[in-house]
Write a structure and sequence with these properties.
Chain A has helices at residues 2-23, 56-71, 85-96, 110-119, 145-158, 173-189, 206-218, 232-240, 268-280, 310-322, 350-354, and strands at 42-46, 74-78, 101-104, 124-128, 137-142, 163-168, 194-199, 223-226, 243-245, 259-261, 263-265, 287-290, 297-299, 333-334, 340-342, 365-366. By secondary structure, chain A is an alpha/beta fold. In chain A, the strands form four sheets. Chain A has a six-stranded parallel sheet with strand order 2-1-3-4-5-12, with helices on both faces. Chain A has a six-stranded parallel sheet with strand order 10-9-8-6-7-16, with helices on both faces. A two-stranded antiparallel ribbon of chain A has the order 11-13. Chain B has helices spanning 12-36, 41-53, 56-81, 89-106, 112-141, 145-165, 197-214, 216-226, 228-233, 238-265, 276-286, 291-315, 319-341, 352-359; strands at residues 2-6, 190-191, 194-195, 342-346. The chains are: A alpha/beta, B mainly alpha.
Chain lengths: 370, 360
Amino acid sequence: MKRKASIFLVLLMVMALVVTGCGSAKPAGEAQDPVNEQPKVKVGFVYIGPVTDGGWTEAHENGRKYLVEKLGVETVIRENVPESSECEKVINDMVDQGCNVIFATSFGFMEYVEKAAQNYPDVKFLHCSGFKMADNMGVYFGRMYEPRYLSGVVAGLKTKTNKIGYVAAFEIPEVLRGINAFTMGVRSVNPKATVSVKWTHTWIDAPRAKEAAKALLNEGCDVLAQHQDAPGPQVAAEEKGVWSVGYNMDMTAIAPKAHLTSPVWNWGPYYVAQVQAVMDGTWKAENYWGGMNEGIINLSPLTENAPEGAQEAVDKAKTAILSGENKIWTGPIKDNTGVERVPAGVTLTDEQLTSMDFNWLVEGVIGKVE
Amino acid sequence: MLRMVKRAQMSKTKSTGIRLLAVFLALATAAILIMAMNLNPLEVYGGLFKGAFGSAYRVREVIIKATSLIITSLGIAIAFKMQFWNIGGEGQILMGAFAASCLALNIPDLSRPLLLVLMIIAGMIGGGLWALIPAFFRAQWKTNETIVTLMMNYIALKWVMYLQYGPWKDPLALGFPKIPNFTLNGILPKVLGMHIGWIFAIILVFLVAIFLNHSKKGYEIAVLGESENTALYAGINVKRTIITAIFLSGALCGLTGMIQASALNNTLSIEVSEGIGYTAIITTWLGGLKPVFISLVSVLFAALLQGGSFIQIAFGIPQAAAQLLQGMILFFVLGSEFFIRYKLVVDRPSLGEAKEELEE
């Protein structure tokens, strides 16, 4: 009888343990690691394209892999998320599965991230390339116009027809900055060259990007640049036997005979720093806009297709940018309708560069903001 | 020679058996794919189930997905009952969303209940009118409605795209092509953590069931679907029946559009329809055009989608592979429907015995 009672007691205690154990399970956002008292971090990445797109999303995926390698944190991903309410659902799914840090890596995710940030105050959100922030929603991006300018120098030296094509996604400041900086780079070494822009209105539709690229080639362009996630325009240039400037990643492998260089992203160190800050409890929502000096962006090594003298010209321009001698957005700058946009001696501020007034194309660009 | 023969009635047990076998075969085949990805099929299937029903949040997500599917499928069922092949659900959803958005964007200060009711009515009229165009052509000139409804989808899509990139573009979006969000007044409220659409869906299942099975109009639709001559002989006004049925069909799709725009996207965009207009064709067909079965199939389908979304995140399965998995399951289930309706017969004298066996 006594023995039975003791077994019963033990069972009761086990039951109690199980029940309290279950009961004290905290919501995913604030799960505690019992070993070192640091908040347990699970990081979700919301991608607009496939991780094998050879460009934008793959660059972020490489950053994620770097993060896992350095910090050993648990990460999850979701590919091909459209810029619609589906994005909100994917974020909800990730929080449901225990994510407490979420990186969303496309401009059009912005309002859904904003909404999710309101719904989940304990989850940290980082949105790439947008302009909305909250206490638990940071924004991060890079001054891609710097390496774009350098790639323009290479393209300007390479072109023989003095016609360069630019396959662009949307008429938003990010893309316009890229086109304008690229064109200024081109014309710094080749004032006669023009840059023709074709809009695709997609980040990820590779066939459409390739179609736009072909149209530019038919207009006589002999160097193509792109603001597209995937390397479609590179392939078009390779097939035509002309040259190309990539974007996002070093695109030499996809177009070995055409590729000159690419402005590239290096997200890994930033991801490590942010997640480390979350783990240390020091994370604060910030608006990060890093330049070449911080390593988040760069120009990939010039290939053997690059013209003679390009390396020296790029090195010179790069030194000027890094030293602050060339701020790129210093006037006088005219737009392509002849209106002076930046007076002599004035440099555009970050606010101006990211505002809706930045809706013009610089002199030398053939095309318009639709 | 191999040929297909329509089966006579098949017993319930046998048809259920075939269906279960199909699901089993689908899972077994997909297991090979999963193992090729170095994952354990049992774990992934467990994940598929857990992802759909494993938490209150997931069940809610399934119901939200099912809601739009059910309402659209009900609309399509009305058309299909009349053997009017309405492939235009997608376009009707978009036009319903467009009509509702007109109100939400232009009179946002109206009181919330009034605005929402008006948006619902507008959405239904928008979808209904869009469906009426092919219905009118069919009633008047006997055009092929499959082609016309399909083509109307593209027109609707391009129309919304035009608005999104042109006149309705949000000036505050820094040039990004998006239409401004509705104010709170234009957003459907939530009940039990899900937008109120799920209640609409439940009510509509019963209303449409009664309409199709117990109303004069529903009967006329069924007769007309079986044979136009019979309908004429019975004194049914063919044109009017077509117009009424297809208006209702489009109106339900339009209601889905209103729900998608208001409750889920909070605005109009080319993404609001999410392919529901096409998916609903499958659920309608698998549900045998019966509202109650349609809602069951829709819930299962939504669970498959939600589970598929879960395993992508949980197991790191690429989207393409998850969709392949869903596609395989669907393929086998649809295939089993074929074998329930038809059988294969081998025409060769020496195989006479085998033939008898098959016919058993």
